[in-house]
Amino acid sequence: MALRKPKTKIKPPRKHGTDQSMQDTWAALARAIQEIHNHNTSKLSFEENFRYAYNLVLHKHGEMLYKGVRDLIAKNLDRLAKEQIIPAFPSGAEGDPTLRSQQGERLLKSFRRVWDDHIDSMSKLRDLLKYMDRSYTPHAQVPQIWDAGLDLFIQHILGPTIAEPLIATILAQIRIERDGYTINRSAVKSCVEVLLLLDHPSIYKKKLEPAVLQESTSFYREEGQKLLETCDAPEFLRRVSSRLESEESRCAHYLTPMTHPQLRAILEDNLITPNLGTVLDMPNSGLEAMIDGEKYDQIATLYKLYSMVPLGLPIIRKGLKTSVERRGKEVNEVNQDEDADEGEEGPAKPKGKEKALAQANAALKWVQDVLNLKDKFDRVQKQSFKDEISVQTALNEAFESFINRNPKAPEFISLFVDEHLKKGLKGKTEDEVDVVLDKTITVFRFITEKDVFERYYKTHLAKRLLNGRSVSDDAERGMLAKLKLECGYQFTQKLEGMFNDMRVSADITASYRKHIDDLVDVDRPIELSVTVMTSTFWPMTHSGSSCIMPIRMTQACQVFERYYLSKHSGRRLTWQPALGNADVKVAFKARTHELNVSTFALVILLLFEDVEDGERLSYNEIKDAVQIPDPELQRNLQSLACAKFKILKKHPPSRDVSTTDAFTFNNDFTANLQRIKIGLVASKTETTEERQDTRNKIDEERRHQTEACIVRIMKDRKTMAHNELINEVTRQLATRFQPNPIDIKKRIESLIEREYLERREDRKSYNYLA
């Protein structure tokens, strides 16, 4: 087999390492890098150029390669800046926001194109110079070529010549958007992203963000003044809320969320904090107007903005308290007007029943106005403040303040409950009854003198129970349960005793009637229905109101008394005719009517049973015959002679009863009803004298309660410092009333005199004496 001679001669491998060959190698690589910068990479061989860079590093020419590449990158960046960025600088559009926005957008896009061009070139160079980055840069302690490219971009593109116009353009774009014009957010975002990437050190944090914050401070300082001058409160709040939302959106879309807290602080410091009181008190549009107009959304915006700053909530709480107290003062003026009229008589002043009704209506109106006011602010609290605890506390303090400025508040609240439990709940469902009682308990919770309320409530409850005026026994017990839950079992102990007496009395009456029915050959006494009241449970305010009753009535009482004492030895009965009522048949000329009258009224009517038709009895004759005290006698005569149903005739006719009047039986009386109830004409609110008497009794009870509390505490502690004892007594008595420290000190002194306590040697503490 013959061998063929090759056509070409195999050349020996080229020798590398000489300076000339390395210069040639670098020149070839430099041309390739320039082609990369010019985006002409389609004809380049990656393997060949990678080998060029490899050989340069391998033969110890890494420094030449590294510096040469840097110089080429720098020249390319200078070319890009000159050709693309500098010609795009904005100029001559100060008066036209739209044109300024377009010019700024052109610069931002040019900057981003240069960055994208640079990054594209650097990614190719990084792949090409991997051997240099792995072998040369760590030994020479210089940045890898990618990092060097970023540094060169900062030096040649983000130097003062370009950086300042670029940042000014971004600020201008932000200002244009804040002024209400549209900008290209993506263009701004693309530039900000570049600045955030260049974080060695961060260009964004060092240059752009401080400029944005400074510009924002100046803008919102002027904005705050402008809004105050041109907007009412709701519009001010809407604008500020809109500004907050726009800044949050701005940071989320094209700045950075890191800047948002600082921008928000600028808005708070310039729009919200300096204007807290001014906006709240704006006439015809501030907080008061919002509450009056039930603008819950506007109040919610107010709360949202004010809660952002430390002073906001305190300002709101103060404004709400002021609003409640002002409105509460207006409610209390109804009571003040009634006080001014009390005791005055004249042609324009109401008298007798009219005055009583006016006073009662004023009391009921006061409570209803308080409830309406509470409902109004409850809606504000729930819908606008989302049940914020501190706001609720402020509202409660305000209600407690103005309610307790009315000295009649406990009486009025008790009267309100009395009216509703007598007739106001008729026809209502159980849920509706609960709503009324819960609202009443809410107002009751605010009064500090709960023992005063208890005294009035006990009196009103006694009258409802004795006169059978309660609409619902369940409602009565429901109210009692609510009071017990609010104040404890001691508060309702006597009230529950009254209910128990009514139950026991019903059983006693039934047993007594059976006993009477079992009697034979005995004259039947007048039919009695007796309520036996335990004196410690019931308000015995009528113990002095007695009268001389006819023989048959006296005999009926004696029969019951003998029966009762035979069943319950060791007890003593005291009759209370002022609290009773009677049914009596009265024959008039036209027909006979059944009258329901008070016991006193029955005794008065029976005086006319044996007198001649038309014969007069003077006031003094009636008084001498029945011995009823003047106030009660006048009220009962007025009910019989001056009210709607005139069973008696008064001479001379008038609305009031005086000691010079005379009375005759009205035989000509007619009415469509067979059964008629003759109600007592009585003032439903106390007179000044009655109220002072009630106050004296309450003060006396408080002295006993305070002493009992002191003894109870000292018996448990044995020894106690003065201030600690005062604080503990105040805490324990707070559920009934707010004791005065001076009064507590007087009670301590009294107990020391009576040797319940003694002072210790330090004179600042006490011992309990068993």
Automatic annotation (TrEMBL):
GO cellular component: cullin-RING ubiquitin ligase complex
Domain Cullin family profile, chain residue ranges per copy: 408-641
This protein's record includes keyword Nucleus: no
An individual GO BP term: ubiquitin-dependent protein catabolic process
Keywords: Isopeptide bond, Ubl conjugation
InterPro entries: Cullin, Cullin-like_AB, Cullin_CS, Cullin_homology, Cullin_homology_sf, Cullin_N, Cullin_neddylation_domain, Cullin_repeat-like_dom_sf
Domain of life: Eukaryota
Annotated Acidic residues bias: 335-345
Molecular-function GO terms, alphabetical: ubiquitin protein ligase binding
Basic residues bias spans: 1-15
Region feature Disordered, mapped onto this chain: 1-22, 328-353
Keyword Ubl conjugation on entry: yes
One Pfam family per UniProt: Cullin_AB
Entry's family note: Belongs to the cullin family.
Name the UniProt record assigns to this protein: Cullin-domain-containing protein
